[in-house]
């Protein structure tokens, strides 16, 4: 596609449920990032994928968070047993060569945990 | 650890003013710096990317400068318009990491 897409755009869930957020990066981009943006806060790095290398998971806040990237393209961020503090906008970005080129962001998924 | 600060946190100006947004960083060993715009409820849109070997980049009414030695970048917006109202974020890519560090942004309102 022409840009990074994310789905769903909005997700409302109950505390304790699992959620899956999807990111489709720009075709051909090898690097993919997940960030979290809470109200009034800056962007918080979660996880980074580069090609077939092992992902950098150093930003994941707890073991309830996990992500995978299949076939070097689509990525799914999974949050298990959601908590109210997980409520935030989850943003995905891709770039052609990590660290060198422009990051292109998707529109985000707004997650609300009741 | 890289820290990125953006000043001011918020800015309200009348239409037509030229304005400067500031971004400072603590580790000068960077490989690039990027300015983004974020509209309410939207993702980030890249405005300008400055590589470490460059001093400035220009796009239309926007000009971004980079001074690595002082750990500073400025985004200059000429002849501001109400459509420029948004949050502006800078992100610094530092040596040894492919994970950029973002500032908290400057919220800009340009009123008619």
Give helix % range of chain A: under 10%
Number of strands of chain B: 11
Number of helices of chain B: 0
Determine Rg of chain B (CA atoms, Å): 13 Å
The whole-number mean of residue pLDDT values of chain B reads 93
Uncertain stretches of 5 or more adjacent residues of chain A: none
The oligomeric state of the chains shown is heterodimer
Q: Give the termini distance of chain B in whole angstroms.
A: 41 Å
Return the string of H and E elements of chain B: EEEEEEEEEEE
Query: What general outline of chain B do the C-alpha atoms trace?
Result: globular
State the share of residues found in helices of chain B, binned by percent. under 10%
In percent terms, what proportion of residues of chain A is strand? over 45%
For the largest beta-sheet of chain B, the strand count, sense and barrel status come to: 6 strands, mixed
Query: Structural class of the helices, strands and pairings of chain A?
Result: mainly beta
Proportion of beta-strand residues of chain B: over 45%
Poorly predicted spans of chain B: none
Largest interface: chains, residues each: A-B, 26 and 22 residues
């Amino acid at each position: 596609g022409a840009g990074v897409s994310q789905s769903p755009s909005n997700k409302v869930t109950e505390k304790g449920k699992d959620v899956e957020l999807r990111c489709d990066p720009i075709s051909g981009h090898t690097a993919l990032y997940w960030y979290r943006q809470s109200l009034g806060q800056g962007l918080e790095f979660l996880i980074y994928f580069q090609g077939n290398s092992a992902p950098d998971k150093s930003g994941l806040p707890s073991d309830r968070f996990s992500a995978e990237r299949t076939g070097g393209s689509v990525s799914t961020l999974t949050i298990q047993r959601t908590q109210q503090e997980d409520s935030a906008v989850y943003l995905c970005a891709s770039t052609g060569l990590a660290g060198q080129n422009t990051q292109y962001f998707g529109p985000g998924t707004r997650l609300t945990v009741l | 650890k890289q820290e990125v600060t953006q000043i001011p946190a918020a800015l309200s100006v009348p239409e037509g003013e030229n304005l400067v947004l500031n971004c400072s960083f603590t580790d000068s060993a960077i490989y690039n710096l990027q300015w983004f715009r974020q509209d309410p409820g939207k993702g980030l849109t890249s405005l300008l990317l400055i590589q470490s070997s460059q001093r400035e980049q220009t796009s239309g009414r926007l000009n971004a400068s980079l001074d690595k030695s002082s750990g500073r970048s400025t985004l200059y917006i000429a002849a501001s318009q109400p459509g420029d109202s948004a949050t502006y974020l800078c992100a610094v890519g530092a040596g040894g990491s492919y994970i950029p560090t973002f500032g908290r942004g400057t919220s800009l309102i340009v009123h008619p």
